[in-house]
Amino acid sequence: MISLEVNGRKYEVDAAADEPLLWVIREKIGLTGTKYGCGVAQCGACTVHIDGQPERSCQIPAKDAQGKKITTIEGIAESDPVKKAWIEDDVPQCGYCHPGQIMSAVALIKKIPAPTDEDIDRAMTGNICRCGTYQRIRRAIHRASALKADEVMDKGGKS
Amino acid sequence: MNGVINMSRRDFIKTGAILGGGLVLGISLHPIGSDSEAGVKPGAFAPNAFIRIGTDDSVTIIVNKSEMGQGVYTSLPMLVAEELEADWSRIRVEPAPVDHAYDHTQWGPIQGTGGSSSVRSEWDRLSKAGAAARMMLIDAAAATWKVNADRCIAQKGAVIGPAGQRLSFGQLAEKAAALQPPKEVVLKKASRPDFLGKPVRRLDTPDKVNGKAVFGIDSKAPEILAAVVARPPVFGGKMKTFDADKAKKMRGVKAVLPVATGVAVIADDFWSADQGREALKIVWDEGTLASLETQKQLSDYAEMAKKPGNAAMKKGDAEASLKNAAKTINAEYAVPYLAHATMETLNCLIDLRADSCELWVPTQFQTLDRNAAAKIVGLKPEQVKLNTTYLGGGFGRKANPHNDFVSEAAYVAKAARDAGIQRPIKVIWTREDDTRGGYYRPLWYDNVSAGLDKEGRLVAWHHTIVGQSIIAGTPFEKALAKNGIDETSVEGAADTPYAIPNILVELHSPKLGVPVQWWRSVGHSHTAFVVESFIDEVANAARRDPYDLRADLLKEHPRNLGVLKLAADKAGWGKPLPAGRRLGIAVHESFGSYVAQVAEVSVDSKGRVKVHKVVCAVDCGKIVNPDTIIAQMESGIVFGLTAALYGEITLKQGRVEQSNFHDYPMLRINEMPVVEVYIVDSKDAPGGIGEPGVPPIAPAVCNAIFAATGKRIRSLPIRADLLKA
Fold first, then answer.
1. Residue range B410-438: average pLDDT?
2. Model's pTM, two decimal places?
3. Tens digit of pLDDT for each residue in B197-250?
4. What residues are paired with A6 via a beta bridge?
5. Three-class secondary structure assignment of chain A
6. At a CB cut-off of 8 Å and minimum separation 6, what does B356 contact?
7. ipTM here
8. Which of A131, A136, A147 to mutate to test the interface with B (most CBs of B within 10 A)?
9. Is the dihedral of CA B68, B71, B77, B79 positive or negative?
10. Which of these, B422, B471, B511, B514, has the minimum number of CB atoms within 10 Å of its CB?
11. In B574-695, alpha helices (H)
12. What is the mean pLDDT of residues B285-299?
């Protein structure tokens, strides 16, 4: 048995030694927001956070994620500025890649609160969108950055 | 029908009859009232197959089209809501079950999504469905207040009476359900729309942002098993023998079974199934295509393109005119096989029991897929329930006229049942399976000649096209083939709008075992590239500006001309550009919509192409949701640009050489041009929007490359080594 902590909850799962975290999360834990797209770290659809870092869950054997904090799209608050910006800009089309896009974007904004276009290119180039929503992804990341700045301002004003 | 026929259902049939316009009601109407999803909840008002109003004021729109990113879960409800006068915040969407009530209005007795036809084909039916419901709600309110119905109006989910009385749709639902439907449906005055033409946020966005949207591959069922299939390495190959000893001993593997398409490995989970497949030893009979080489195919096609084919279009005498022309030019063009590469790979969940079967599948072709599955498992179509999930991209691949991935799942389920396994099984295709699975956009080869007279006017055009027919051997062959010509092979070429006095378009449709299929924009993906590139070659030969020449030749086609001018104006055609950048233009009509694009491009010394900006003008007639139109233009541009820069499926010894995104690359965010979209204000009939953004981008980019380098790209994808300084 493998012990995993996903979105703050603990799970005991029966998985093969080399079974990728992606499939354990999807099939055994039942959180299907994290997507399979390529299985070879080329598309980013399976992006999750492991101890806060964006990682391709298709490349990580589930056993190696034991003792770490795993966050999936379901574990990102609906009030997160990135999710809010994604809705505001109506970014998704088919929507399949967007959990991965959002996980990459959340990690980016955390690291660089006001990313430039170059920062966005660097952080997001690993995430393919076959529907071609890139222009809106860029717009939404800038918007999320502004929303987050507003939040910080609001909190600062109250304290 | 489970004996459940209530008042609402009878109303439904009557309403349907007056809706007319291809709405076939009364035939095997889905058992409304007995089905938990499409059923009528107590007290609800279900005036027709598309609308259900609850006593809680909820308005459920049952959508008969597959949502694959193109926005039908929003645009089709907008059509209903406009006429219903619904409160948009109360609208929710449910996918339609398979039922003749939901058949495509133009395709015969099948339900399906494709051809950029959803809004166009449903506009009348859904408008009338909404209007009929609104009239019944008003009648219910008028009867309650004992006033004349024409003194009441519907507004934002409620009916307002002459004295300012107000009853919500939910409050009226039960009463309206008992009423007779109107004999004549009166539509709102089109001049004052509440929704249509205004940007509306997509209803599916929140679920897609929160990871809650359920795509086919996400479908769940108790006791579910996973399966993968080992398929032949060559199209048309067959399994001869297989050794599953090792695979069967592997962790999680439940069964290894021969099926019509290869060998299925069924396991507790995907990973075990995939590992089991790795351990299989299979001897294949590779069949006749084991020697197929793309290079050889291209040279064969090139020879064919020099010979007369079936005439798809003949006007004047192009051959004689070419002989007498003051100047002639000739060129050969080629485009490769392309995979759709939907982000969600093909998959199908099937639960086969003794006398029933249920499918959860990301499909564009509900009726045909269901019927195919029923035939394979030996059940009647009505014993098979098909649930349409969200589609993680479709682009035509999930509208397979041979029902390939659903049929395969049925074969797997049948083999499993015969082997004593009666559990739901999800067949999952890996990215490699999907890339190598065939049903590609055909490889095309074109030979084109043009003749100019002494004044440099274009007087002759001779275009010979070579490529496999998509519709041959499918249920669509009769409807789409005329005089031996597959219309999808020549669309966009045989109907060229350019004013040329002598035109001959010919077609060769060689038969070959590589499976081909419609790929977003179908024939236009290829014909626009050839026609719009070669028109540029004509402009160059005639020493004309490419925009001016097009504008001259499109005088009789105001909508083509309109978008051409709009795109050129907005892009600053003829004005100075940043150093090293050049513009290319293309205009093309497809699926009833007109699109022009201007690409701003630079080429570096290593021959690498950078597309900085694309200005796009679109005339798609009457508008539903402008934001969706913009999104679909952005999407089509990326789709077409990906193909122009990278897309190529090649075969060596019959084997597909590409497998995953490392060797079948997609455009990424760092390569994304700035896209500006301008929509023509139009009162014309609505056109399609999912596909028309694709065709112009490849020629626009290649025409810009010619402007920048003097080098003409005639074969896609664009190769840097041909453009090195």
1. 98
2. 0.94
3. 999 999 999 999 999 999 999 999 999 999 999 999 999 999 999 999 999 999
4. A9, A70
5. CEEEEECCEEEEECCCCCCEHHHHHHHHCCCCCCCCCCCCCCCCCCEEEECCEEEEHHHCEHHHHCCCEEECHHHCCCCCHHHHHHHHCCCCCCCCCHHHHHHHHHHHHHHCCCCCHHHHHHHHCCCCCCCCCHHHHHHHHHHHHHHHHHHHHHHHHHC
6. B379, B383, B384, B385
7. 0.97
8. A131
9. negative
10. B511
11. 626-645
12. 97
Cβ pair A81, A141 in contact under 8 A:
no
Asked if A93 reaches chain B (Cβ–Cβ under 8 Å), the answer is yes
Distances (CA, A) of A35 to A26, B221, B453: 8, 18, 59
CB contact residues (below 8 A), chain A span 21-60, against chain B:
23, 26-28, 30-40, 42-43, 45
Contact status, residue B126 vs residue B76, Cβ threshold 8 Å: yes
Alpha-carbon distance of B528 to B507, in angstroms, equals 16
Q: A63 and B173 in contact (C-beta within 8 Å)?
A: no
CB A109 within 8 A of CB A124: no
Secondary element (H or E) of residue B59: strand B59-63
B616 is written with which tokens? 């796009």
Q: Tell me: the pLDDT tens digits for B102-116?
A: 999 999 999 999 999
Q: Is A120 on the interface with B (CB under 8 A)?
A: yes
Pairwise CB contact (< 8 Å): A73 & B210 = yes
The model's confidence at residue B61, banded by pLDDT at 50, 70 and 90, is very high
Q: Which residue among A37, A129, A135 places its CB closest to the CB of B675? A: A135
Q: Per-residue pLDDT tens for B520-577?
A: 999 999 999 999 999 999 999 999 999 999 999 999 999 999 999 999 999 999 999 9
Decide if B202 touches A, using CB distance below 8 A: yes
Say how far apart CA B268 and CA B330 lie, in whole Å: 59
**Digit-coded pLDDT (tens) for B476-501:** 888 888 888 999 999 999 999 999 99
Q: Compute the distance between CA of residue A39 and CA of residue A20 in angstroms, rounded to an integer.
A: 9
**Does domain B7-207 bear CATH number 3.30.300.30?**
no
Q: What is the pLDDT of residue B43?
A: 60
Nearest to residue B12, comparing CAs of B207, B181, B262?
B181
Q: Which CATH number among 3.30.365.10, 2.40.50.1020, 3.30.200.20, 3.90.960.10 corresponds to the domain B216-287+346-428?
A: 3.30.365.10
Tell whether A117 is within 8 A of chain B (Cβ): no
How do the domains of chain A map onto residue ranges? Answer: 2-75, 81-158
Q: What is the mean pLDDT of residues A66-82?
A: 98
Split at pLDDT 50, 70, 90, the class of B190 is low
Fold of A2-75: Ubiquitin-like (UB roll) (3.10.20)
**B294-338+439-722, CATH topology level:** Aldehyde Oxidoreductase; domain 4 (3.30.365)
- Quote the DSSP letter at residue B197: T
Q: Which amino acid is at B258?
A: P
The domain locations on chain B are: 7-207, 216-287+346-428, 294-338+439-722
Distance between CA atoms of residues B288 and B296, nearest Å? 15
For the segment A61-70, the average pLDDT, to the nearest whole number, is 97
| CATH value of A81-158 in 3.50.50.60, 1.10.150.20, 1.20.1250.20, 1.10.150.120 | 1.10.150.120
Closest CB to A20 among B271, B431, B638: B271
Q: How far is CA B500 from the centre of its chain?
A: 32
